[in-house]
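<discrete_fold_record>
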Amino acid sequence: MEDLSKKDIEQLQKDIKETIQALDIPKQKAQLHSLEGESLEENFWKDTENAKDIMNQISYLKDEIDTAENLQKDIDSLAELFFAIKKETEQNELIEEFEKLKEQLEKFSLRKFFSGEYDSLPAVLTIHAGQGGTEANDWTQMLLRMYTMFFDKQNWKYDVVEMIKGTEAGIVTVTVEVKAPLAFGYLKKEHGVHRLVRISPYNAQGLRQTTFAGVEVIPLFAKEDVKLDIPESDIEFKAVKASGPGGQNVNKTSSAVQITHIPTGIVVNCSTERSQAQNRENAMNILKGKLWRIKDEEKLKELSDIKGDYKIAGWGNQIRNYVLHPYKMVKDLRTEVQSNTPEDVLDGNLEKFLEAQIRME
């Protein structure tokens, strides 16, 4: 930007006002007041997991309200200063502050696109290796690294709740609980097939190889978040030995559980908690998310209509190519957003891909 104009200032004022109105800040304040009152109750910390969820919601709402109020205050101050200055050269000294404020709004305005019923919830992200043995397992491990690096950059908490390692290297399947507000809203469009093209380090002939991995993203439900009644007769439960590292919270006890949904054959393992009962509850919440996605995608009225050996949606739905040879490029096939530095993307810099998909929706 060479010159800062009255039109620029007025447009930014309008954009900030519209974003704040879309987020309904008075409603957010009422919700915050209610949750803060709940947190002061005598037995609030009796249910630790529920208390943590509420404290996370309080933190998120405070951040949203404070950010909205600061944006309004900052644009009012900038506009007042701009219109008080008469010389164009002095007005242009405010360009840096204007651009900074515009960038803050760009990130904050994403929140107004999260209108889905469960967008505000944490998420469960599962990566499955496609066909290809060790090569596919290695690609699954690369994707896990990419996503966890992105979570770290966002300061999102996460736990690996299930991991099956490959025979020689890599990962066959891995499930991660992402415990951050809006995680499902941000990540839900990562659901689908991710394709890698490269010279395989596992190919003695040094040939170019194409590999696939499926990513599944579901909301992480709590007890009260969704009404999905799963008959006990549809569930097979058993205690198992933990097969994974338990993410950031390592579980070295034998309290891991496995739940199988008999009508679909869906299997969920969970081993993050030391309590078998808590692991069972967590596994059931993940299962509810998986069944909700099937019901939602297939537009089914009843949970009982879900039958058969269900494969995750997306095996025929390729969403992004990661090409490391013969040229370098990552391209999203839905938004056309691309990067010529795949190493940067694989290091967790996913923001422009996620934001483009959110805005397109």
Notes: The chain has two domains: 6-113, 120-195+210-316. DSSP finds ten helices and eleven strands in the chain.
